[in-house]
């Protein structure tokens, strides 16, 4: 059996290095809490999306309702590196408790919103907590389990995302139709309360010495600079080509301000004693390669999630529910493949397994433009099933592998950097592929046509044959772009990632140094 290279890593003083062996039964309560916390984040966008008509009908603000999603995404993305560093400094438990509390506060405020502006503001508050949920849950999963058992917990978390993707729209539709749209936020409160109780009651982290606690410094200037820079640049990407033209004054101004703030981030972080984004995140080949590869994953994920439903309705003539099923199949094959990936990477290594997955994904995405026109629904469904399986083979080995190359004191920052790059990739992909699709539609149908106008035509049932062919051409162009992103990720792993990840040596109990214990 192939094994990854092993080295002894450095850990910060003051963190207990011995790991108490904890049986799976005793970890059950904390695992349940992590899955509930992840469900809060995973359900968020899918459950809100189906209630948009009711929300707009009640509060108004149709012209800005997209910020219900964009504002939340921006807040989650820019806070990921901040929470990652805080969890390495003060521990996972306080960060997760604080983040969950902020998320629940935001949920309560959203339910009490009196207009669209207030709802968007409170969604941003939700996102400020959501960043802690995503990053800290993934970090704790690595802390709790030794390397050989981490695929189990990661596959469970992947299953949470899969179930949320399938169940979220239905739950949101039922609540909005038969109750009130405000219940899609209120339902978070009991779920989050149970997660909080389980975390507070059962999660116990290694003791930290008084010296370490005293020396711990928070780079608040860096955190503010990262937040401002990320917020400005992501806003430019989200709104560019939608609210204003790419070469308009607002776009140019935001990008210029973002680049200036990026220079400020570099200056502040170079001088900080404990920077929010430390330089070693990019100086270590393994972490840098995984960051770039998962950034490319974020880009390519936009193709199916954003454009496939329009293709399924406009070209295949499917109803919205059936179109959603075509998309949802990849969320079912993804966690199954992720759970089985350990049998592959234990033989051929983390890098080679990920390269096998992303190489296969590139071929699958490249095959999409060759589907017959108009085609049958089973054809893209089959491709999406294979794509989910390929990406499960790609993402999980990289996350498990990169988390295994660092100790407790660096795992939160490392995990946050990986998730930050994937989220940023999704934002970039949405902007780039949106421009590509709109360009193809405009060239086929005339300058007045874009994705928004096509979507409205689908809702009204006014889709001509020329429009169907234009939608197919636009989807083909986007999928080819996604195949290019997959090929880029393959090259990054081939040229930058080490053949064997430098996995940390684990202690007698089978856990890496600094891992936490769980008590009843």
Our count of domains comes out at 3
Give unreliable regions as ranges.
1-23, 210-214, 507-520
As a percent range, the share of strand residues is under 5%
The level-1 CATH class of the largest domain: Mainly Alpha
Backbone shape: globular
Give the secondary structure arrangement, pairings included:
Layout: E1 6-7, H1 24-49, H2 52-59, H3 67-90, H4 92-111, H5 116-144, H6 150-178, H7 183-186, H8 188-202, E2 203-204, H9 210-215, H10 220-239, H11 249-271, H12 280-283, H13 285-314, H14 320-340, H15 342-348, H16 350-367, H17 378-403, H18 408-445, H19 451-460, H20 465-495, E3 503-504, E4 517-518
Parallel strand pairs: 1-3
Antiparallel strand pairs: 2-4
Helix pairs in contact: 1-5, 1-6, 1-8, 3-4, 3-5, 3-10, 3-18, 4-5, 4-8, 5-6, 5-18, 6-14, 10-11, 10-18, 13-14, 13-17, 13-18, 13-20, 14-17, 15-16, 16-17, 16-20, 18-20
Any overview of this molecule?
The protein has 520 residues and is mainly alpha-helical. Helix content is 75%, strand content 2%. The protein has helices at residues 24-49, 52-59, 67-90, 92-111, 116-144, 150-178, 183-186, 188-202, 210-215, 220-239, 249-271, 280-283, 285-314, 320-340, 342-348, 350-367, 378-403, 408-445, 451-460, 465-495; strands at 6-7, 203-204, 503-504, 517-518. The chain has a two-stranded parallel sheet with strand order 1-3. Strands 2-4 form a two-stranded antiparallel ribbon. Helix 1 packs antiparallel against helix 8. It starts with 5 loop residues before the first strand and ends with a strand. Residues 1-23, 210-214 and 507-520 have low confidence and may be disordered.
